[in-house]
Amino acid sequence: MAVFLLLGLVVGSFLNVCIDRLPAKQSIVAPPSHCPECKKRLAVRDLIPIFSYLLLKGRCRYCKSAIPKRVPFVEAATGIGFVSLLCFYGVGAELAVSLFYFCLFIIIFVIDLEHHLILNKVVYPSAVIALIISIFLPQLTISPALAIESHFFDLGWASGIVSCLIGGIAGFIIFFALSILTRGGMGEGDIKMAGLIGLAVGYPLVFISILLSIILGGVVAMILILFKLKGRKQSIAFGPFLAIGAMATLLWGNEILGWYLSMIM
Ligand SMILES: [Zn+2]
Q1: Which of 56, 154, 217, 237 has the greatest number of beta carbons closer than 10 A?
Q2: pLDDT over 60 at 153, yes or no
Q3: In angstroms, what is the span from residue 30 Cα to ligand 1's centroid?
Q4: Centroid of ligand 1 to alpha carbon of 34 (angstroms)
Q5: Ligand 1 center to 94 CA (angstroms)
Q6: How far is the CA of 32 from the centre of ligand 1 (A)?
Q7: CA-CA distance, 8 to 72, in Å (whole number)?
C-alpha cells in the first residue's frame, strides 16, 4: 500500500512533466527536469513529490519564480488515485489497465483545463493502446451485463475489439453530431476524445460515459454561470468532464448499466 502511494506520487511527478512539455512540443524524456523560468537543472531534493513544493513554499530555489499550484495537486491526486485503484481492483491486469487510463485522463484533464486543447499526440497513441488492450484483455471491454443476455458478443477473441470499435465509432459520431448542434461548442479535440473513450470502455458503456460527462458538464456550467464565474458566452473546456465520466464508467459502468437494465425490464 505504502509502496503504491510512493509509486503514484512519483508517476504524478512524471505526469506534471508531460503536462508541462507536451503542449509546448518538447520531449518528455530529455532534457532532465529544470526550472522553466531560469532553466536551472533541478536536483533530486527539488523533485520529491509534494514535499519539495511545501519546503520551497511553491517557488523555484534559484530564481524564486512561482511553481504552479497544479504541480502538488497532480502529484497528490495521482498518489491517492493509485492507492484507491489498488483497493478497488486488487493486483491484476484490470489494475494495470485502469492505472494507464487514470494517468491518461489526468494528462488530458489538466492540459485541456490549462490550454483548452486535447492533443492528437496524446489521443492517437492512446487509441492504439486501447485497441491492443481490447484484443488481449477482451473481458475488460465487454460489459458482463450485456454478455449474459446477448449472443452478439460470442465472437471469441474478436469480441473485445468489436465492442471497442463500436464504442469508439459511437463516441465519435455522437460528439460529431453534438459539435454541429452546438455550432462548435464541442471542439475537434472533444470529438476525438469521445472516440478514444468509446474505445476504452467499449459498447454499450460508451453511452453511460458520455451521459455522465454531459450531466456533470451541464451541472458545473450552470453553477459557474449562476455564480457569475463564467459568462454565458465563454467556452468551458469539456475534456475534464469527459475524463471524469470515463473514469467513473471504468469503475462503476457495469453497475450503472445493470441497474438501468433492471429498471426497464
Ligand atoms: Zn527558476
Answers
A1: 237
A2: no
A3: 18
A4: 8
A5: 40
A6: 14
A7: 12
Distance CA 68, CA 214 (A): 29
Distance 221 CA to ligand 1 centre (A): 36
Cα–Cα distance for residue pair 257/145, rounded to 1 Å: 7
On average, the pLDDT of the chain sits at: 90
pLDDT above 60 (res 149)? no
Q: How far is the CA of 56 from the centre of ligand 1 (A)?
A: 11
The alpha carbon of 17 and the centre of ligand 1 are apart by a number of angstroms equal to 15
In tens, the pLDDT along 41-67 reads 999 999 999 999 999 999 999 999 999
pLDDT in tens, 164-205: 999 999 999 999 999 899 887 788 999 999 999 999 999 889
